[in-house]
Design brief:
Elements lengths: L16 E3 L2 H8 L8 E8 L5 H14 L5 E3 L10 E4 L8 E2 L7 H11 L10 E6 L7 E8 L5 H16 L43 E9 L11 H19 L7 E7 L15 E7 L10 H17 L7 H6 L6 H14 L7 E8 L14 E5 L8 E8 L2 E9 L5 H17 L7
Parallel strand pairs: 5-6, 9-11, 11-13
Antiparallel strand pairs: 1-4, 2-7, 2-12, 3-4, 6-7, 8-14, 9-10, 13-14
Length: 434
């Protein structure tokens, strides 16, 4: 949801409504209890926040962004749209301070992946302040229902809460760097009609939902004047990781398609809150990621493709999604059709997703509790993709979250994929790339 879509005027005593934008509606159609669509964000602070002070700061932050205070409005069987109802305040306190206990962070992570905040209570997110005995500091663990909000929007809420908590205004964040119009790359990658590779199944344990591993890695180095970005290095590492994994499982070689969110929104207090990223797909021919590939050439080729994709205007989910959400028939009928189409289109869904927030653009200064020493976030990994890579850079380190569907991979598979990614990312560094 973006602020460009105004709320409907309302009579006295009637809350304003906002029709679900395209992204929200498609996510709502495809909700699955077995694989909740959540975004998890954890902000590690060196000190501990004061309970009443943090509750007050976060409540004030929500009040600054009315679009965060929303719930799904009840609808009749023949309603043609889902609608958000903007509330005057939270329906419940989204902040909790569970008692400090051993293993509290692992349990909070598991809950973030397994239980989505309700869409029928405002706001559709929760914040758990996690503390463990014998461990300094605390972790602010946000769980967001992705039907309503995305990771960058939640970070904006957290940044405003930090300003209010500390009483110090943050400097204006830098605008997203976007290339001007660029010519298409010499080679555009695989045909859009080619069926992309799927992530090969590992040894799942039969459990449902998602699992996750997090790691702190060095930011890969680049030569001065290198034509590629850290995001391109992450993209290459992701492609090579999946290609090597599939090769080790004996699957036939196919082109890879990696979904990449692009966020063009301003990052300051005027940032539209909701699902504001657009999705593009970066393609790789099987030969480009084959064994013995030239990593330096692949970096240059990837940079050409990502620059062209970022510069090209495109609806958030493409034109087909816009047609699917046209309110010509009741929303219940569109939901059934969309779910069926998603199953049919499964073989053509992208191979995996890489979401790189990059360097966190806010200081997130929580006063006496300090600034973040680490920040991880993770995107949903429901099938048919079943695997996502998400990264952020904080305090000069790269924070990677690898998240996967338990129906596709087991814990040992996740550890093996993390090892492959770490090795391939190091190979893109200027000191090691050929």
């Amino acid at each position: 949801m973006t602020a460009l879509q105004p709320a409907r005027p309302h009579a006295a005593g009637r809350l304003p409504r906002v029709p679900f934008p395209v992204v929200d509606e498609v996510e709502r159609h495809c909700e699955q209890d077995a694989e909740p669509t959540t975004v998890h964000i954890e902000v590690h602070l060196p000190g501990r926040v004061e309970e009443d002070r943090f509750r007050s700061a976060f409540a004030q932050s929500l009040a600054r962004y009315p679009r965060a205070l929303m719930r799904e409005r009840p609808r009749g069987p023949f309603a043609r749209r889902y609608e958000w109802e903007l509330t005057d305040g939270p329906d419940r306190d989204p902040v909790s301070f569970p008692p400090a206990a051993p293993g509290a962070l692992d349990r909070a992570r598991d809950a973030a992946l397994a239980v989505a905040p309700s869409l029928t209570a405002s706001p559709p997110l929760r914040v758990e302040v996690v503390r463990e005995p014998g461990r300094e500091g605390c972790v602010l663990l946000f769980t967001v229902n992705h039907t309503a909000l995305d990771g960058p929007a939640c970070l904006r809420l957290a940044a405003s809460a930090a300003e209010i908590y500390s009483g110090r205004a943050a400097p204006p964040p830098p605008a997203p760097a976007r290339p001007a119009s660029v010519p298409p790359p010499r080679r555009s990658g695989p045909s859009a009609l080619a069926r992309p590779a799927r992530v090969a199944a590992g040894t799942p344990r039969g459990a449902s939902g998602n699992a996750m591993l997090v790691a702190e890695l060095p930011v890969p180095r680049r030569e001065s004047g290198a034509p590629y970005t850290v995001n391109d290095q992450l993209m290459v590492a992701t492609a090579l990781t999946v290609a090597d994994w599939n090769r080790s499982r004996g699957t036939a070689e196919r082109p890879l398609r990696i979904t990449m969110p692009v966020d063009d929104r301003p990052r300051g207090p005027e940032m539209p809150i909701g699902n504001g990223t657009r999705l593009v797909e970066v393609g790789f021919d099987a030969a480009e990621v084959a064994a013995g590939r030239d990593v330096a050439a692949l970096l240059r080729l990837t940079a050409e493709r990502t620059r062209a994709l970022k510069a090209q205007p495109r609806p958030q989910l493409g034109r087909a999604a816009s047609l699917l959400t046209t309110p010509l028939v009741p929303v219940a009928a569109r939901a059934s059709f969309t779910r069926g189409l998603r199953v049919l289109a499964g073989p053509w869904t992208s191979t995996t997703l890489l979401s790189n927030i990059g360097r966190i653009p806010y200081p997130m200064d929580f006063g006496d509790a300090g600034r973040p020493t680490a920040l991880w976030f993770s995107a949903p990994a429901r099938t048919p993709r079943g695997l996502t890579f998400t990264t952020a850079s904080t305090a000069g380190r790269l924070h990677l979250a690898l998240r996967w569907s338990r129906a596709l991979l087991g814990d040992e598979d996740g550890a093996a994929l993390l090892g492959l990614f770490t090795r391939h990312l190091a190979a893109t560094s200027s000191e090691e790339a050929p």
